[in-house]
Design brief:
Its EC number is 1.3.7.7. This protein has helices spanning about 35-40, 50-60, 80, 90-100, 115-120, 125-135, 155-165, 185-195, 230-240, 250-265, 270-295, 310-320, 335-345, 355-365, 375-385, 395, 405-425, 430-435, and strands at about 20, 45-50, 70-75, 110-115, 140-145, 175-180, 200-205, 220-225, 240-245, 300, 325-330, 350-355, 370-375, 390. By secondary structure, the protein is α/β, with parallel strands linked by helices.
Length: about 450
């Protein structure tokens, strides 16, 4: 198959100087990844070992009472536990035994630390090994950290998937492993496209249940759908799997480049690739074009939040006509972000990490048409007359692959339309106002 990677701009951003800052951060806690992971992995339970503060965070983030949602909860550490006065391991064993006796449907149990082990006085890795021996083979017990001290917003998913890789069985089969949690409808669309090209067998991590056939070996090739999976990437490489580097499947161009990289690895004929992708590519371009009328010529500033910032900036610059002024990301990993940086036209300041006060100063000075940031910054910036988009929406909304490309562009267009409508003094009964406010 001929190379279908989009032609890069004359000068991309892969070799651009990166502004690295370490200071006060404004990011969500990695525990919030549980909100989408517990829906994706259907036979799993996520038991957060932490304080009442962590329980309140999950309650607020999920919009439900703890244990009212069927597959996550919190084992609350009391003052005596934190002071080392109680045997926390014995107490955890009792809570796990009680949970599993009441919930026989649980096949995978994730112990999620809300703080470093030095804080909670509990070694969860040792606890997971002990509990696995006790409850295997019916239940697999794994652990990872979702601590806001050790992880940023989306790194909770990365830590979760990385914890699964070492326990997957060995295989010599040549298989494609697609890595990253996607909404079921999006995953099904992706699998349909790959199947129509004759690519298979295809495995997905995370699988929807533990019984899905999946192994890792030197003949495994894998493609990432999320740009924040650096630890999972490293774990797969340690198992001997081969990474297919590609731009991430956001927008028509990114999706085509991602599929083309996979198709090239599996020797798919160019005519077959074009036949399979022609119709969805056309629909994606048309859907993006509708929102691009609003976005074209506008400027955008990204605060670091989800690690989606670089592929999103590439999408907005190349498909929507926007001009990124600064593209901040919590971490930049060349093997993951490099292909998107190649395509991102030279010009924006690329920044890694954050000193939030200094970054706010740069944003205020540049006065972008749109600022993508966390919840804590959005309202103050709106009060200063800047249009904002909550970064968290870009994680919780289906945005990957062709059929979601128009929805992705619309997420950025709505705040700009809203501001335009308000500036023109439209009545709240006007249909455009209602759409802009959505």
């Amino acid at each position: 198959m001929n190379d279908l990677t989009p032609p890069p701009p004359a000068l991309g951003c892969r070799t651009s100087p990166v502004l690295k800052q370490r200071g006060q951060r404004e990011v969500f806690c990695g525990l919030t990844g549980i909100i989408w992971l517990h829906r994706k992995i259907q036979d799993a339970f996520f038991l957060v070992v932490g304080s009442r503060t962590c329980a309140h965070l999950l309650q607020s983030a999920a919009g439900v009472m703890i244990f009212a949602e069927p597959r996550f909860g919190t084992a609350i550490l009391e003052e005596g536990d934190l002071a080392g006065l109680n045997d926390a391991h014995k107490e955890l064993d009792r809570e796990v035994a009680r949970l599993l006796s009441r919930r026989p449907d649980i096949r995978q149990l994730f112990l999620v630390g809300s703080c470093p082990s030095e804080v909670i006085k509990l070694d969860l890795s040792r606890a997971a090994e002990r509990l696995t021996k006790e409850f295997a083979p019916k239940v697999r017990v794994l652990e990872y950290s979702g601590s806001g001290i050790e992880t940023t917003f989306t790194q909770g998913e990365d830590a979760c998937l990385a914890s699964m890789v070492p326990v997957l069985p060995e295989t010599d089969a040549r298989e494609l492993l697609v890595v990253g949690a996607l909404p079921d409808v999006v995953e099904d669309q992706m699998l349909g496209l790959l199947d129509d090209m004759g690519i298979g067998p295809v495995r997905v991590l995370p699988a929807r249940n533990i019984d899905a056939e999946m192994g890792i070996g030197k003949n495994t090739v894998y493609a990432l759908t999320q740009p924040f999976l650096s630890d999972t990437h490293a774990a797969l490489e340690r198992r001997g799997a081969k990474h297919i580097q590609a731009p991430f499947p956001l927008g028509e161009e990114g999706t085509t480049a991602w599929l083309a990289a996979v198709a090239k690895e599996f020797g798919v004929d160019r005519a077959l690739f074009d036949r399979v992708t022609e119709a969805p590519r056309r629909r994606a371009r048309q859907a993006v074009a509708a929102a691009a009328e609003t976005l074209n010529g506008k400027t955008v500033f990204f605060f670091p939040d989800s690690q989606l910032e670089i592929p999103l900036a590439r999408f907005l610059a190349r498909e929507c006509g926007m001009t990124p002024l600064e593209v901040g990301s919590p971490y930049i990993h060349d093997a993951l972000h490099g292909p998107d940086l190649d395509l991102l036209p030279e010009g924006p300041q690329i920044s890694e990490g954050q000193d939030v006060d200094l970054q706010l100063e740069r944003c205020r000075e540049l006065r972008p048409d749109l600022t993508v940031c966390g919840l804590g910054l959005a309202n103050p910036l709106e009060a200063e007359g800047l249009s904002t988009k909550w970064a968290i929406e870009l994680v919780f909304t289906p945005v990957h692959f062709y059929e979601q490309a128009g929805d992705l562009a619309a997420l950025f267009a709505r705040p700009i339309r809203r501001k335009s409508t308000l500036n023109h003094g439209e009545s709240s009964s006007d249909p455009l106002f209602a759409e802009a406010r959505a």
